[in-house]
Design a protein that fits this description.
227 residues, mainly alpha, two-stranded parallel sheet, two-stranded antiparallel sheet, 6 strands, globular
Amino acid sequence: CNLGSINLVQHVNGRSIDVEKLERSVTTAIRMLDNVIDINFYPVTKARNSNLRHRPVGLGFMGFQDCLHQLRIPYASVEAVEFADRSMEMIAYNAYWASSELARERGRYASYEGSLWSQGVLPYDSMKLLAEARGNSDYLKVDNSITLDWDALREQIKTYGMRNSNCLAIAPTATISNIIGVSACIEPTFQNLFVKSNLSGEFTVVNEYLVRDLKDRGLWDEVMIAD
């Protein structure tokens, strides 16, 4: 389970994402995750053989709700969907590019030949392929627009291949997000003040953005906490 997560809220600058910072973070994260494959301890031989042959990693992110709070975007809104689309496109694009650069530096993963990557098929193409397979182009009602140069990425992969068979995952950040102090993965804020318990201990989780707004309005007191 070779996973890592980008703290997305640390990459929001004002009213937008800091594109250059996010690119640096994703590139570094993919390199670190690829390193883990080689230095990891594998109690099961099959797991070791599989990881070394296919080199899958899973980069996700956390703090999505925090970003929406900072940008003043309601979770259940078209703007939130657009922000998710654009931010995840940046993470995916840079993750694939970073893996291809590692392939140039360190070599392709062993089972690369014959994979969808080697055929020029990117995960971005999966929705189109699904619609074609089911004979209904209207089957998936999603926004297929792009903002980055995916053709350049295809050429990059065609030339150098990929270091990792898988790059992304919806990483389960339930505990580490509590430790860092951000919302888990893409989860919305479902309660403004609660205590979470697990094997790592007890975590008091507070909606700090709500507290900040209440303080600005002079409404933060013991009565409000009790309410």
